[in-house]
Fold this protein.
Amino acid sequence: MEAQKRLIFSLLYLTTLLPFSILGLRTLPPDSNPCNLKTLPDPHSLRSDQLTVLINGYSDSRISLLTTIAGSYAASPLVASVVVLWGNPLTPIETLNSLSLNLSLLYSSGAPVILYRQQSNSLNSRFLPRRWIKTRGVLICDDDVEVDRKSIEFSFRIWQVNQDRLIGLFGRSHGLDLKRKEWIYTVHQDKYSIVLTKFMILNVEYLYLYSCGSDGLEKKFMELRGIVDNMHNCEDILMNFVISDVVGRGPILVGAGRVRDWGDARNEVGIGKREKEVNVGLSSIKRGLGEHRKKRGECIREFHRVLGRMPLRYSYGKVVKSVSEQGLCDKNGKLVPCDQQILE
Ligand SMILES: *[C@@H]1O[C@H](CO)[C@@H](O)[C@H](O)[C@H]1NC(C)=O
């Protein structure tokens, strides 16, 4: 009875998005099957004029930064709600209760901000389809990257006119090592084929595709997600595979106004090297990649093996904002209007 009452309260809370956390931390019962379309909102009912923001939270030491970041997303009129997906199962409940309360107080500044405790620490769970996502666009980001409001809004505008594409602020590449005849993870000066989960905007449908697969591909997708679990890495690369495979085109990189990157969220879990984006040259990004890059190269090779093809596609140039608010693309250092060719 008690459990039932709690469930009803939890559901009420998430549907109405109450401004104040009177109940402390809500842990929704796990969806028995997140791939059951009947439990997900009707795609036609989703709104396209606002975004849902999903921030991955893991480290206690970054909670205050996380709170700041969540607050700045909540302040944007384009944001419908901000959900912090807490993935660290070891965080004390008192800390989470306090964080939950602090986040709910941010509501006064705009969109509701909710803490959601992940049921599993699988990296794949940041991409689970959710009953409570009521927007078509979903912004996925880490807890250590601060993006200014104009860049968030500009990126969203770009997504609104490219709703099938993956939009990001941080580009990387796959490449072919000709000597070893194998795929690698790298950074190219003039092209990219992967955008990172430090900041990405995608259509909510891709969450379903990633997590549930599509007709006949369910087993393959399960195997691909298994690679992410085994490697404790690469869920972002897999999402790029999934979307490029459907669209037949690469992601769209947006030139950000002001981005502060506080480091790679994976450091804390002992995976990967620090990958600082701002004020560092391409060469030092390359140097810093090290082990992290090797591991991610391995992911690319494994995904390619399982899928039996290489869906990643290069894109060239990034979409930047001009004074006239019209998109300008930076192509080989020159600014040109973003016509379809460049976005393709
Ligand atoms: C919540 O906010 C209070 C007051 O600013 C602060 O002392 C506390 O550390 C915060 N809790 C968490 C978990 O960040």
